[in-house]
Amino acid sequence: MAATAQASAPPQAHPDLRAVPRIEFLLLALAVGGVALSAPLISATAAPALAIAFWRNCMATGVLTPLALLRHRAELRAMTRRSVRLSLAAGGFLAVHFALWLPSLRLTSVATSTALCTITPLWTTLVLRLRGHRPPRTVWLGIVVAFAGVLLLTGVDLTLSSRALLGDVLALGAGMAASGYFLLGSEVRRTVSTTAYTTVCYATTAVLLLVACLASGQALGGYSATAWWQIVALTVSAQFLGHSLSNRVVKALGPSFVSTAILMETPGAALIAAVWLGQLPPVAVYPAVGMILTGLLLIVRAGRK
Q: Where is each EamA domain found (predicted)?
């Protein structure tokens, strides 16, 4: 979801990290902190979930559009029909992702929802396999471990309540939608800058979420000042700070290192939720989350080959 970084030459898969300036690691730490803060912020904001998703994308579009019109107007006009269609479709997947994930945070714990939603690499790997790609054996091992963690985690929530289990299902669906968004976006960004692409994508997402809010009767205003500031903080921390900085440092640190670091979103979000919101999941949740993270780590590390 990188918002402002420009398309550039493909980053090195295995750069010499000893030669990378320390500022790159600091920026990556800020990026991880930004995305980790998003789930607790959403859970704490006293506003309808779909409305939060709409305003997050609406604000991001409002910031991106002037930049795109000033610096990328010619590129926007030159986008092929295929690129436009794929960008619109990616925006649709992103809208589904937000529409499922944000409500899940109100039904189950931040730790559980975040862990189930971040298994996007698993779904992406399966889709690529259906398209003819042959991942290494380690990737399949990672898929098995991650799926076992998912089964254990949903089983724990089933013993708690049907409400928590529904939150799990929504989070899983959100992860699937995110994989569609990432696959389509990666195809568009072969020929289109990130700013031009995300302007079209985020605008599409905002429009679809607005329609969903109006259709479901969710209030788009009347929130407290605290809620509005939390929505602004969410937009800055996740939409811009987290994802933009991730895209900023990937050239220097490499996609494998950055992808592995981003997996820290789950324990980071769980820690913030525990300290800030007092959410302490059952003890059985922790080994399940650990299995999911281990499986994803195997997928990411093996996928770089």
A: 26-154, 166-300
| Per-residue pLDDT tens digits for 24-58 | 888 888 888 888 899 999 999 999 999 999 999 99
Cα dihedral sign, 131-125-260-175: positive
Residue 194 and residue 6 in contact, taking contact as beta carbons nearer than 8 Å: yes
Question: Tens of pLDDT along 108-126?
Answer: 889 889 988 888 778 877 8
Please state, in angstroms and rounded to a whole number, the distance separating the CA atoms of residues 270 and 111.
5
Contact indicator for 133, 214 with CB cutoff of 8 Å: no
- Are residues 178 and 118 in contact, defined by beta-carbon separation less than 8 angstroms? no
**Of the candidates 267, 246, 240, the residue with the CA atom closest to the CA atom of residue 28:** 246
pTM of the model: 0.83
Query: Is residue 128 included in any domain, yes or no?
Result: yes
DSSP 278: -
Print the domain residue range for 266.
17-303
Determine the 3-state secondary structure of 15 from DSSP. coil
Type of residue numbered 29: A
Looking up tokens 């944000």, which residue turns up?
102
Helices (H) and strands (E) in the chain, counts: 14, 0
Work out how many domains the chain is built from and give that number. 1
Structure-block tokens of residue 116 = 């189930």
Q: Is residue 259 part of a domain?
A: yes
DSSP 18: G
The reply to whether 75 falls in a domain is yes
Q: Which residues contact 116 (CB under 8 A, 6 or more apart)?
A: 104, 150, 153, 154, 168, 171, 172, 175, 292
Residues in the chain, overall count: 305
| CB-based burial label for 10 (10 Å; 0-12, 13-18, 19+) | exposed
The count of other CB atoms within 10 Å of the CB of residue 130 is 8
CA-closest candidate to residue 292, choices 182, 164, 172, 137: 172
